[in-house]
Amino acid sequence: MDTWLKVLTRVGPMILGGFKATAPFAPILIDAVATAEQGRDTTGPQKKQQALDAVDRYVAAYNATSKGPKLDPVVVRTIAAMAIDPLIATVNTWARTPVSEQ
Question: How many domains does the chain have?
Fold first, then answer.
């Protein structure tokens, strides 16, 4: 799991940062996925739900404390829901790649 989390924190920003829709939310998406992945005895769909729930909490906290424009929680959750699966698939691929090939 340590390798997987290292790959997530290194590759995740490059993946999410490259798209206009996900770039602003990259740090919270990566943190949410990393936190959910640490859960033991949970399925992939359960981990995704946990990550989305964490994103909801981040957005609520941001909106409660920000003096600037508020984030639309529905938009952020929709973007997160679409981004998580490809992010996980890419990280899985990189995590299985021998270090000598990276």
Answer: 1
